[in-house]
Amino acid sequence: MTGRRVAIVGAAIALLTATGAAHHVTAGKRAAFPPEDDVVYLPRTDALRVGAVGHRELVADLLFLRAILYFSTQLTGARNYEWLDRHLDVITELDPHFHAPYIFGTRATVYNGLTITNEMVMSSTHFAEQGLKAFPNDWELAFTEGCNWLFEMKTNDPKEKEAWRRKGGALIRRASLVGGGPVWLSSLAARIMTEEGEADGAIRYLEEQYLAAQDDKTRQELHNLLLAKRAANVDRLTRARDEFNAAWQRTLPYATADLFVLTGEAPSPRLDLPFLTTDEVLAASEREDREAEARWRGTAPPGRAFAGGAEPSQGSAFEARARK
After folding, report:
1. How far is CA 63 from CA 10, 25, 53, 69, 209, in A?
2. Handedness of CA 131, 132, 134, 138 (dihedral sign)
3. 161 pLDDT higher than 70
4. CB count, 10 Å around CB of 24?
5. Do 229 and 286 fall within a single domain?
6. Residue 66: which residues within 8 A CB-CB, separation 6 or more?
7. Rounded to an integer, what distance in angstroms lies between the CA atom of residue 57 and that of residue 98?
8. Which residue segment(s) compose the domain that 287 sits in?
């Protein structure tokens, strides 16, 4: 029995020695690998669902920790984020109602130490859009996507820039309407809309915010903004009304306002004398009339020839008109 015990103890010691040696060799080989190599590969989502055996939320949590480790390692290393989108997409597919990966994805894909490009901004927008499908009332996701379109996307095309601006303004308006965000969201959305020329929309938006305000301070700030916007809008409408009435009275004062709206303001008729005498025939005719009138009154120089080649007779139509 004693010999058997000695053999067992000897075998255990040998096994532990071999295990330690193998661990030492493995650790040495692993030290030669880049530290991020063990967090790059990720199985297909379907395989992970099967492997989760009903605990998809737990697997999503573990993968999220792995994604954060991968990001932080790259942030202080080579800054190669090629697999970051893949990790976050798998996490949100496993657990669509896991809020943190969406927020992390909107930020990490853009603010990671690299020069921001439109491709990076679109990755951020992708996670914001996916997050809003699962959390339609999340102000932070809507606000982030709105800022992406307003401030981060770059283009030299004015039409494209204006389209992005309007889209971003609508998202920031959505962010402020769903509630939960800071107080300044309301005024920010209103200013963006006003800069776009949508003053009426800004007023309606402030009215909605005023009705939904939960505290007196916010309600008073919205009240002041609403009064200012309404006053500016009234001034704008008053100027437009005065301009319309002036054009109406100048062009069609004898007609109804509805008819003037249909016809619009007519161009200047240009019936002034300098315009009419630009034609040589008309100019010659006017000169003939002036000279004939001067001769009839006895003021023309003696022997002055008329432009028509002959002096007008005493029975001319001009003299007949003058005698009346």
Report:
1. 42, 28, 15, 10, 40
2. positive
3. yes
4. 10
5. no
6. 39, 87
7. 8
8. 269-297
Task: State CA 277 to chain mean position distance.
Answer: 55
Together in a domain, 197 and 222:
yes
**Range ranked top by mean pLDDT from 19-33, 34-48, 149-163, 186-200:** 149-163
With 0-12 CB in 10 A as exposed, 13-18 as middle and 19+ as buried, what is 60? buried
Whether residues 207 and 221 fall in one domain: yes
DSSP code of residue 109: T
Q: Give yes or no: residues 211 and 241 share one domain.
A: yes
Side-chain half-sphere exposure of 213, counting CA atoms within 13 A:
21
Give every CB contact of residue 77 below 8 A, 6+ residues apart in sequence.
34, 35, 36
Q: What is the pTM of this model?
A: 0.56
Whole-number percent of the chain with pLDDT over 70 = 66
Could you give the CA distance from residue 320 to residue 318 in angstroms, rounded to a whole number?
5
CB atoms inside a 10 Å sphere around CB 229? 21
For the chain, the domain total comes to 2
Phi first, then psi, for residue 161 (nearest 5°) are -65, -40
- Considering the domain architecture, whether residues 261 and 275 belong to the same structural domain is answered as no
Residue 61 belongs to what H/E stretch?
A: helix 56-75
Nearest in space to 175 (alpha carbons), one of 187, 189, 164: 189
Residue owning tokens 């102000």: 139
The two three-digit tokens of residue 156, written as one number: 């030299």
**Using H for helix, E for strand and C for coil, what is the string for 212-281?**
HCCCHHHHHHHHHHHHHHHHHHHHHHHHHHHHHHHHHHHHCCCCCHHHHHHHCCCCCCCCCHHHHCCCHH
If one counts every other C-beta atom within 10 angstroms of the C-beta of residue 231, the result is 10
Q: Can you tell me which residue has the tokens 């657990």? A: 95
